[in-house]
Design brief:
Layout lengths: L7 E4 L10 E9 L6 H9 L5 E9 L5 H10 L6 E6 L4 H12 L4 E4 L5 E2 L3 H11 L3 E10 L14 E4 L2 H6 L9 E3 L14 H11 L3 E12 L10 H20 L5 H24 L5
């Protein structure tokens, strides 16, 4: 029997690895990413259940990134990696939407050009998607790790957790590089947003009643701190302002009540204060 609401679901059986590729298009926005895109695509190619296609979207980098993307594409079977040139620069939302528009598979996965996946990521997510076709979005945990580190082993039994309204009001539970979603969803990234654009999309999906779940395992990695990487309080202030804009957008579109809006705003203020303390405690970079 499957647990409903926000409880843990039954353990997911070990994924089978069919010969056919996973019906997934991977969209990777790229901006001056020549130094990292090779590792990102290599982690896609290393999947035990390899996605059917990869779309690399150059967001008008203005350097040699586009050439680097073509070199990466040429290293794999013809047609598996597709390179898309976008101009003018429109930010990650526009780049992801452009890749989404040209994708042909039933599911879309997202990976940023400086992140990587663990080898079983797609296999585990597809196992749950195939077991529960009601799922519109599936994600998992991520953590920061050195680029050269080996993927960590699974911890315990792999389970999925349904993410409901209350959890979405607290903060963003879905790291972008962890998400696989249905291509036919009637939403896209809001191109007015260059920060927190991912959370706005996930919230629109979840608050509209679509089923969203999260696996309890780390299946992808950031290779730099997730906020304040340069120790600049301005970065944190900009993220906080973007979060306020997202909450206003959700309220204006009727997806959250005024009470939910003020609750989420209060949580955001507490989180901002906590992050400021963490930044002050971080050793200065020399």
């Amino acid at each position: 029997m499957r647990t409903m609401g926000q409880g843990m679901n039954d353990a997911i059986p070990s994924p089978s690895i069919p010969g056919a590729p996973a019906p997934v298009s991977v969209v990777v926005p790229c901006y001056r990413c020549g130094d990292t895109i090779g590792d990102a695509v290599a982690s896609i190619a290393a999947q035990t259940r390899r996605p059917a296609e990869v779309l690399l979207v150059d967001d008008a980098s203005g350097d040699d990134t586009l050439d680097a993307l073509h070199r990466v594409a040429d290293a794999y079977p013809a047609g598996w990696v597709k390179v898309i040139a976008s101009s003018p620069n429109g930010g990650p939302s526009r780049a992801r939407n452009l890749g989404w528009q040209q994708a042909v598979q039933p599911y879309i996965a997202f990976l940023d050009a400086d992140d990587t996946w663990a080898p079983d990521k797609v296999a585990w997510q597809m196992a749950e998607l195939e077991r529960d076709p009601r799922i519109a979005l599936i994600a998992h945990r991520m953590k920061v790790a050195p680029r050269e580190a080996a993927p960590a082993p699974l911890k315990g039994v792999v389970r999925s957790h349904v993410i409901g309204r209350r959890r979405l009001l607290l903060n963003n539970p879905f790291p972008t590089a962890s998400v696989i979603l249905r291509r036919d969803l009637p939403f896209r990234f809001n191109e007015r947003f260059r920060r927190v654009e991912d959370f706005l999309l996930w919230a629109q999906i979840g608050f509209s009643g679509y089923r969203c779940v999260k696996l309890n395992q780390v299946l992808a990695y950031w290779h730099k701190p997730t906020f304040g990487a340069a120790g600049l309080s301005g970065d944190l202030d900009a993220m906080h302002r973007a979060g306020k804009e997202v909450r206003r957008e959700l309220l204006a579109s009727g997806l959250v009540t005024r009470g939910e809006h003020w609750f989420a705003r209060s949580v955001g203020l507490v989180r901002r204060g906590r992050r400021r303390v963490l930044l002050l405690m971080r050793p200065a970079t020399r």
